Amino acid sequence: MIDFNYETEFVLDNEEAIANWISKAITSENKTEGEINYIFCDDDYLHKINLEHLSHDTLTDIISFDYTMGNEISGDMFISVERVKDNAIDFNVSFEEELKRVMVHGILHYCGYKDKTEADALLMRTKEDEKIAMFHVEQ
């Protein structure tokens, strides 16, 4: 089950399409869908979580809490809409494209992909592109 929660003014206008796409991304990695919660918030909200739970005094676009057990993907993903907007400008992509990248990035972490080394980051980016392309096929 994929659920969307809002702690800011932002609201997805295509929740069903996004949920279907995330489900397909999970299935394409030979995983099953558990409970996945996306919580959209602002920088202040996410900064507090970063300080309280990770002791990081920085802004970030996403913090995810992974509750995956075996092949069943589950977790809570907190996404700063402000960071995504700024990153979209920095990376010269649309807000929608950057949001999809961040959303699927969390899912890929739950699937076991890492991004700490250069090789892992390259594989993660390839997987993100692959999953984003799946959304465009749906439209």
UniProtKB/TrEMBL annotation:
Its main location: cytoplasm. Coiled coil: none annotated. Pfam families: YbeY (PF02130). Its cofactor is Zn(2+). Binds 1 zinc ion. Zn(2+) binds at H105, H109, D115. GO terms for biological process: rRNA processing. GO terms for molecular function: metalloendopeptidase activity; RNA endonuclease activity; zinc ion binding. One of its GO terms (cellular component) is cytoplasm. InterPro entries: MetalPrtase_cat_dom_sf_prd, YbeY. It is found in: Cytoplasm. Keywords: Cytoplasm, Endonuclease, Hydrolase, Metal-binding, Nuclease, Ribosome biogenesis, rRNA processing, Zinc. Its EC number is 3.1.-.-. It comes from the Bacteria. Belongs to the endoribonuclease YbeY family. HAMAP family: Endoribonucl_YbeY (MF_00009). PANTHER family: ENDORIBONUCLEASE YBEY, CHLOROPLASTIC. Single strand-specific metallo-endoribonuclease involved in late-stage 70S ribosome quality control and in maturation of the 3' terminus of the 16S rRNA. This is Endoribonuclease YbeY. The gene is ybeY.
